[in-house]
């Protein structure tokens, strides 16, 4: 199976399955001398771990991370960093009754058509459990970005039809992980909670929108033609299993705007350029402008629902399925740190590429 690695200069390769012994990641290309600890990685992993919140799965995993290589006396050595966490709460027996049935909305059918085989226990590599590796690698990427003053934050903008229409500053997003559904607007989050409870009571799931921001990004990152910064970001975010659409800046709203409305006009203030708006989302011509980078992702409802659905078996015979087990009612709160990590990984690579292209 190809496609298990991401990045060029700063590269990760993830491994492991949802119901396997462990999941982990190998990070290559991290500069030597970066201070990093298991506590730094754990802090990020705790933001996505299962077993908490009204929207999340009831599967209990500590996600305790172990750094196996690449770090000595609290600093990176410049060699590959291998990180691992053992699975602790697999209940594979939940899948025995449906192991020959394709779960609607899952990758079972497409994996079977590609490989003639698939891991029916929670989806194997297609499970959201694989994203633990991305968050672990993203924790290192965030540390590198922080040394350059770049920070990344986000929030759950919408769950179903309940949407937060406000814009938030970097300061306002600092404590977003103190909220249960990762929405910093209290009134909206309370409505979201009610919707999640109603959906769970029906044995169903629901999707939403997550918004991301990268602050203090310098101008000049990204390539102008085939490796535009926005296309790299879009590809990275679309690579998250539950994501079905990506917007940069004004996104689909740009299609309904006039050019004079969508253009970000520029003025000079104290001899420095200043944009009057940010419909471009901080990227023009595939290259960062120095404004905050803004992206949004559309997250589909978790496909595992207890409602009876039509499907087929491996012999293409009609059947029905009810998926039992422990699944997220809404994946948005747990996908936020994953999306932040993917954005961080793109920016680290872009930052390294830019430094490699400039003398001095």
Automatic annotation (TrEMBL):
State how the cofactor is bound: Reduced FMN (FMNH(2)).
Please write the reaction equations for the catalytic activity of this protein. 5-O-(1-carboxyvinyl)-3-phosphoshikimate = chorismate + phosphate
Top-level EC class: lyase
Which top-rank group of organisms is this from? Archaea
Write down the species.
Answer: Candidatus Iainarchaeum sp
One Gene Ontology cellular component term attached to this UniProt record is: cytosol
Give the function comment from the record.
Answer: This reaction introduces a second double bond into the aromatic ring system.
- What single Pfam family name could you report for this chain, choosing any that match? Chorismate_synt
Asked whether the keyword Chloroplast is assigned, the reply is no
Q: To which protein family does this belong?
A: Belongs to the chorismate synthase family.
Give the required cofactors: FMNH2
**EC number(s) of the enzyme?**
4.2.3.5
Query: Which parts of this chain are annotated as the region Disordered?
Result: 41-60
| Listed GO MF terms | chorismate synthase activity; FMN binding
Protein keywords = Amino-acid biosynthesis, Aromatic amino acid biosynthesis, FAD, Flavoprotein, FMN, Lyase, NADP
The record's section on Gene3D superfamilies has:
Chorismate synthase AroC
- What is the name attached to this protein's record? Chorismate synthase
Q: Which InterPro entries match?
A: Chorismate_synth, Chorismate_synth_AroC_sf, Chorismate_synthase_CS
Binding, NADP(+):
48
Keyword Lipid biosynthesis assigned: no
According to UniProt, this protein's pathway is:
Metabolic intermediate biosynthesis; chorismate biosynthesis; chorismate from D-erythrose 4-phosphate and phosphoenolpyruvate: step 7/7
């Amino acid at each position: 199976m190809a496609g298990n690695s991401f990045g060029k200069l700063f590269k990760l390769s993830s491994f492991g399955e949802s119901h396997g012994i462990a999941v982990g990641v190998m990070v290559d290309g991290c500069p030597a001398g970066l201070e990093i600890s298991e506590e730094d990685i754990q802090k990020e992993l705790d933001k996505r771990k299962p077993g908490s919140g009204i929207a999340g799965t009831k599967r209990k995993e500590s996600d305790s991370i172990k750094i196996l290589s690449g770090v000595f006396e609290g600093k990176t050595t410049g060699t590959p960093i291998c990180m691992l966490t053992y699975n602790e709460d697999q209940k594979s027996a939940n899948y025995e009754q449906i192991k020959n049935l394709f779960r609607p909305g899952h990758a079972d059918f497409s994996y079977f058509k590609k490989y003639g085989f698939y891991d029916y226990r929670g989806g194997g590599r297609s499970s959201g459990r694989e994203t633990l590796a991305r968050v672990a690698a993203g924790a290192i990427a965030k540390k590198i970005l922080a040394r350059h003053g770049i920070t990344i934050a986000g929030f759950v903008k919408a769950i179903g039809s309940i949407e937060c229409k406000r814009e938030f500053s970097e300061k306002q997003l600092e404590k977003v992980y103190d909220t249960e559904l990762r929405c910093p607007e209290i009134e909206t989050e309370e409505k979201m909670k009610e919707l999640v409870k109603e959906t769970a009571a029906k044995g169903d799931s629901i999707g939403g929108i997550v918004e991301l921001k990268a602050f203090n990004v310098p101008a000049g990152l990204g390539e102008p033609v085939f490796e535009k910064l926005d296309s790299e970001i879009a590809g990275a975010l679309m690579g998250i299993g539950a994501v079905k659409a990506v917007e940069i800046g004004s996104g689909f709203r740009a299609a309904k705007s006039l050019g004079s409305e969508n253009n970000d006009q520029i003025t000079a203030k104290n001899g420095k350029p200043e944009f009057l708006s940010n419909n471009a989302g901080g990227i023009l011509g595939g290259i960062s402008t120095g404004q905050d980078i803004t992206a949004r992702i559309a997250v589909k409802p978790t496909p595992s629902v207890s409602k009876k659905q039509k499907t087929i078996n491996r012999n293409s015979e009609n059947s029905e399925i009810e998926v039992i087990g422990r699944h997220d009612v809404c994946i948005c709160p747990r996908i936020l740190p994953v999306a932040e990590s993917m954005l961080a990984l793109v920016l680290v690579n872009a930052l390294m590429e830019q430094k490699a292209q400039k003398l001095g």
